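User: If only I could read backbone structure tokens as easily as an amino acid sequence. Those tokens are not coordinates but codes from a learned vocabulary of shapes. Could you go through the record with me and say what the backbone is doing? Here is the record:
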Amino acid sequence: MEKSQYGSLRMSATTEARLRMPSRMVLIRHGESQGNIVQKAIKKKKIAAYPEGFNEVPDREFRLSKRGQEQAKTTGSWLKTQYPNGFDIIYVSDHIRARETAALVCESAGWHDCQIRIDPLLGERSWGNFQTAHEHKRDALMALRKRDPLHAAFPDGESLLFTRLRARNLIQKAATQFADKRVLIFSHGEYIEAFWSELAHWSTEKSVEFFHSNAGNVRNCQVVEFSNSNPHTLSDEGLLRWVKSSCPYFEIYGQWSELSYRKFNPRELLEMVNKYPHLDLGSLENRE
């Protein structure tokens, strides 16, 4: 193993070639939470301020809404038909809404005796003090997030780049510990997006484009499956190169597609760079 500039471990090319990924990795976003309901109401201007006591509840502690519970149960029933033998390994985020989702999904699937491990590294991206900030400050932060989603961090929160580093930790764990296993992960929307982007080595631009499309929409209780087997030839490639995204609650069932791993030559990089304008620095550009 080699150490990256961020202090996490990365695999050398020779080590990576000897490792095998799980046969399946399935990531599920938690069901609709009570926090989701309030945040949507604020965003759509249905309410002018957060309900009394809402800001005193840590993000980690929000429970599922009634619809969120139904979403989890529906997902569990569907998942049973797809994986009748269950999973070898199950992990869940430390957040309460993710734990509640995991319990309801597994109960609905009939996996009453499965053992679920809690991993705080699977948690939601921290938005810090965003919801207690003034409305104008929140608007400015959202504008910055739209312009630079990977690097923009909220006050006392984390950037999406750090979330991707946490996702990389899971990918490395999968490569070293979960070879040929069926792995189920209960997590959060932005974490799943980070995992997907990191696995496919996507740039900021590609991630933004994809996750703002219908195909990349990670809804509550969205089920994103990654496979190391080509679904058309059933050949085992050893790497998670195939993906399918479904949301049983909304009767949306995806099709397997190949992950696109994109590399760029210098000309292509310059074409991307030239989409961003130079600043007009005047005489500063002409200094000795």
